[in-house]
Design a protein that fits this description.
about 325 residues; alpha/beta; Arc Repressor Mutant, subunit A; D-Maltodextrin-Binding Protein, domain 2; 7-stranded mixed β-sheet; 11 strands; about 20% strand; rod-shaped
Length: about 325
């Protein structure tokens, strides 16, 4: 027996990929379709819905009005479906349109397909509703404290029914939460987008060296040299924070950072230590506006080193934010 006349199972028996390819070629030769693929003779949902409307009304014109198209367009769609299926579906006469025997059978099948599609659509809407009912945000400390509150207030006017949770941590922790699926979108302050994430710049920031008014640097007249800054024990954020990454990179060519005076896990804690004269600190310009205005902290210029950084929204590579996360992203960029 030749391969072309065997069934799909027999064609594959002991033949591997070559046998399977032969089965597909045989099916194509005899007008069939490979398994796992819908036939090109299956009409689209719109055509099936039109056929059901014809069955309900007994009139092509009434069916056309129900689905929102013109009667000539409806007639053309029915003829196209008849050519596609290879059978006559509707008998047309001055008294109206009547289903043929084949048309009645196809209509019964179409009803089940359309009902299944409607159930599919309801389920998809439920999934979107569940997705849109919450937003999980992970953000590094400076963004969480000084930028996100305003963005989230603006989001609430757009999506009052979305429950938002915010997890604050350093930039490394934000990446970990995204990888674990514990956040829908993240915000980081490091030098670049962490590996495995995509991102976009949403704001810019400058790091500022500050001291308490009682510190000797507060009375100096000229800017600080980068080497002197690198050699001075500072009050710093922990490793993994965006601020620490930028500072490490900026001073790497000047001997690197000295052993920290204090290593603290939040911007607020570092700022409090600097205000209490524990030692010099490098902080986001966003975090010290009030302290500089009230002279509780004094900014010290540093010459010959770039202490600027980009603030980014990030998400797992290839999975751009949707729903509330997408709306929040639009607000940050606006």
């Amino acid at each position: 027996m030749s391969r072309e006349t065997r069934g799909p199972g027999a064609a594959d028996g002991g033949q591997g990929a070559h046998g399977r390819r032969g089965a597909r070629e045989a099916q194509a030769e005899h007008g069939g379709e490979p398994r796992g693929h819908l036939s090109h003779r299956v009409p689209d949902l719109g055509a099936l819905e039109l056929l059901l409307a014809v069955a309900r009304h007994g009139s092509l014109g009434a069916a056309a009005r129900e689905v929102g198209i013109t009667q000539p367009a409806a007639s053309s769609r029915i003829r196209s479906m008849e050519r596609q299926l290879g059978v006559a579906l509707v008998d047309r006469s001055p008294r109206g349109s009547r289903l043929t025997d084949a048309g009645a059978l196809v209509t019964d099948w179409a009803r089940r397909i359309v009902e299944a599609a409607e159930a599919f659509d309801v389920g998809a809407q439920a999934l979107r509703g569940r997705r849109d009912s919450r937003l999980r945000v992970a953000a590094s400390m400076t963004i969480a404290e000084y930028l996100l509150p305003g963005w989230l207030i603006a989001l609430r006017t757009q999506r009052p029914d979305t429950a938002v949770s915010l997890q604050a941590g350093n930039s490394a922790a934000v990446a970990e939460r995204l990888f674990a699926g514990d956040a829908d979108v993240g915000f980081v302050e490091g030098l670049a987008v962490p590996d495995g994430l995509d991102g976009v710049v949403v704001a810019h920031d400058r790091l500022v060296l500050v001291v308490a008014p009682s510190h000797p640097w507060a009375r100096r007249r000229g800017p600080l040299d980068p080497a002197e800054l690198a050699a001075t024990p500072l009050v710093l954020r922990e490793r993994g924070s965006g601020t620490r990454q930028v500072l490490d990179a900026a001073l790497s060519g000047h001997g690197g950072l000295a052993q920290p005076l204090l290593e603290l896990a939040s911007t607020t804690a570092v700022k409090a230590a600097a205000v209490s004269a524990a030692g010099p600190a490098v902080l986001s310009e966003l975090a010290i506006t009030e302290e500089l205005a009230s002279r509780r902290l004094v900014a010290i210029p540093v010459e010959g080193v770039l202490l600027r950084r980009d603030l980014r929204a990030v998400w797992p590579a290839g999975h751009r934010p949707t729903g509330p996360a997408r709306d929040l992203l639009s607000l940050t960029r606006g």
